[in-house]
């Protein structure tokens, strides 16, 4: 067989594998969306139930604001960008969720501070002294605007965004965190990550807002990269505001899935900015490094928490395998491969995707399990809860379906910038 | 063999088993105390390190106020009530811990609100909007008074106690919890439990204070018993302040180890009050019921959390086996047996003690592991951390040694009020 023929055959085989994954991912997306459409809509008050058992049975009717915002965002995104999800039922549920948020999310208007969790009918139960409820509120409003064209949603999104930026960069006092003499000024990686995600969201196909938030986007990227510590050998969840390692467990804490998620946020940012050197840096430090340190060599899957000095983490769930680090890793590696053509990244996508589909997927009732033991056994049978809603799984499946489609529509499987063909 | 002879032989065998456990427990207590004495003392600032790895290695130097207070209490108690622990090194460390608390625990004196965690040199890092730091502060001060005879410690204890009672029964506003419209008025069982424990502590051999807190003790007992719900078929961690079941996960939450701990607090209270009917009720509802619902039939050990309707709990660690529910169960069953003579309670003591010594004990380095997987494998190798210090293990061992000694010093192994001899 000639070299050229063998290369063509390899390429064909690769296309078939990509095609098979595209179908697998697309079918799974349908099943997952069906699960949430069937079980999570509150027809009476609007918004979404997320405390759902294995078969979708409701076990609590509290409404977590993060998860309300995320589901609104997800439904709008699917409605707007996938022909087969351009269904009135999705749009209506998203709008009802958005109206629920507009009416009830803020604890004491005109303050923009949102509750963390509400009763089914919208009364506040708990407030967190962080920015995350407000971030997902912003994502929901921006995507509602893009989907419906109603300007009031965009106004809401931008006003909330500006408030969040004020809390993060100017004055956090309204969040209510006490100033304590022994508490270091910590930057959790989640903060610049979420802000960067919002910058991408609000600036999408909107030159005005992209310009408005351009400096913020660069600031976020710099701040995220400050979490790469120890001469590039570790990604740390928490650093000081000036980018130094903090002492103790807090400073040594690692969360491989979170690093991978930050990785694809950054990769997307630098792809848009066209910076090849930083893209390679992100792949090395926020994709490959956390993956190789975080992957369990005995049972597969990504650990939830690790300690940079290999002490035992104090989080009881440190060795559990959670769904979202795996969905984020799938996105990260497929995005890395789509951009660079490095076959090692495609191989890692397949490795993570195989583990994920084998271990988290529930062939019987749809949607994924969220929480496995270290050994990969289902530890919690719930499909949704206080921190798991209609978000990471369908976002991963939708993004992977799109990226796989884009790869397949190229003349060759991928541009081979580096690697071994 | 005559019936009388067989009964005598059975009794002798029982005494031998009790004697063997007394020795096993006593030796273990020595090893556990040695671990903390060797690794936890901060010679520079006073107080105790509790973030200790398997072999005692320090992995963080934060000082958790709960754990400072508990270790002071434990050391004083051992010094005061065990001849072999009447050692200057224990007393000195307890006093240094007490002085550390006096100097640094309160965040903003003259307010009595204490921090949850301090830096090594005493600067506040976090404050919880609950009463528990203050409760363990009170225990430490009262026991320091009993051990040293210095009146200023008792003054501290009583003043803090009165402040806690004010927060619980009169006005909680200083704790800083926001009043939210959707948040039910919850009573976590921990609150009346801790208060009852303090009533017993402060009133011990002190008629004046016993009298002062007598009504409070009865109030606590009533409040704890309100957590027995569903016609006596379930102990619920959280109920409304007027003793009704709350909706959702919060209302259905169960914690078998916590119920067993509340059980022996109540049992001790009703033994002191001489109420046989309530003692039998406590044994049925707070010892046997949570044990039988909470014991894992597949792998042994007590689950950490359960849902009263058998939904899957949302706590990621719900199926893990923690050290303290097992130490509390050992105390509860041995106390129940000592009081009632019911051989079934002695059998359960043996069952729990065997599991506990097999699974949690570390024959190599002393002190127990704290966190096992559902299957009983060590999940966290730490011996101490933010929530595990020198308290539950030595308290259990010291109390069991005393109770076993008391049983053995009786003419017969135990008064057989009910049961099958």
Give the fraction of residues assigned to helices of chain A.
55-70%
Approximate shape of chain A? globular
Largest sheet of chain A: 3 strands, antiparallel
Which percent range describes the beta-strand content of chain A?
Answer: 5-15%
Task: Return residue spans of chain A where pLDDT drops below 50 for at least 5 consecutive residues.
Answer: none
Largest interface: A-B, 45 and 45 residues
Give a quick set of tags describing it.
homodimer, mainly alpha, 3-stranded antiparallel sheet, about 55% helix
Description:
The structure is a homodimer of 421-residue chains. With 421 residues, chain A is mainly α. In chain A, 56% of the residues lie in helices and 7% in strands. Chain A has 14 helices and 12 strands. In chain A, the strands form 5 sheets. In chain A, strands 1-2-3 form a 3-stranded antiparallel β-sheet. Chain A has a 3-stranded antiparallel β-sheet with strand order 10-11-12. In chain A, helix 6 packs parallel to helix 10 (256-273) and helix 10 (256-273) runs parallel beside helix 12. The longest helix of chain A is centred in the N-terminal third of the chain and has 37 residues, at 3-39. The radius of gyration of chain A is 21 Å and the shape is globular. Chain A starts with a helix and ends in a 12-residue tail after the last helix. The model of chain A has no long low-confidence stretch (mean pLDDT 96). Chains A and B meet through strand 3 of A and strand 5 of B.
